[in-house]
Amino acid sequence: MRRNPTPLLLLCTSLLACQDTLGPSDFVGYYPLESINESALPGTVPALPAGCAVTFQYGSMFLADGAFSIYLYMSEACPGFPTGLRSQEFGGALAVQGQSLRLHAVDPTSPSGATFDATIVLAGTDAVLTLPINALSVAAPTTLRFGPRKPDALTP
Which residues of the chain have pLDDT under 70? Predict the structure, then answer.
């Protein structure tokens, strides 16, 4: 007796297609900073106030179920001022939205405690975060690529 494999194949295909949201096992872990705006580190971007620049030297991101933390080491240059080095650490809430992650953070560079939202898109073992204008004093949307993910690492 010969069976038609089509119903079983359709069932398997439809079950795979139904996984339209991420689970913690898809993203939880440690991610080292790889690049800025698709350029190798260190990466320099325009910053605010106008005429300033921020150079990202290195950093990392940790994603957990419902929370994130990001550590960045950077230098700032503004006309008429000496170049300053700083480390910036911030974290906040993380929510799954389909196949991406949405973060909500208090901007550590804001004197008034302004918040910002951003999206993290997973790309293989990497996580790509686009900072909006004004977040961390950047003057233009800035893409930070973190990876590859180390799912079992709590620290680098």
Answer: 1-19, 153-156
SS (H, E, C) the chain: CCCCCHHHHHHHHHHHHCCCCCCHHHHCEEEEEEEECCEECCEEEEECCCCEEEEEEEEEEEEECCEEEEEEEEEEECCCCCCEEEEEEEEEEEEEECCEEEEEEECCCCCCCCEEEEEEEEECCEEEEEECCCHHHECCCEEEEECCCECCCCCC
Asked if 75 and 94 touch (Cβ cutoff 8 Å), the reply is: no
Give the C-alpha separation, 135 to 88, whole Å: 12
* Location of structure tokens 């790889």: 34
**What is the per-residue pLDDT for 10?**
43
How many domains are there within the chain?
A: 1
Output the domain CATH number for residue 137. 2.40.128
Pair of tokens at residue 59: 């950093």
Q: Is residue 92 part of a domain?
A: yes
Q: Is 41 inside any structural domain?
A: yes
- Domain presence at residue 79: yes
Q: Is residue 129 part of a domain?
A: yes
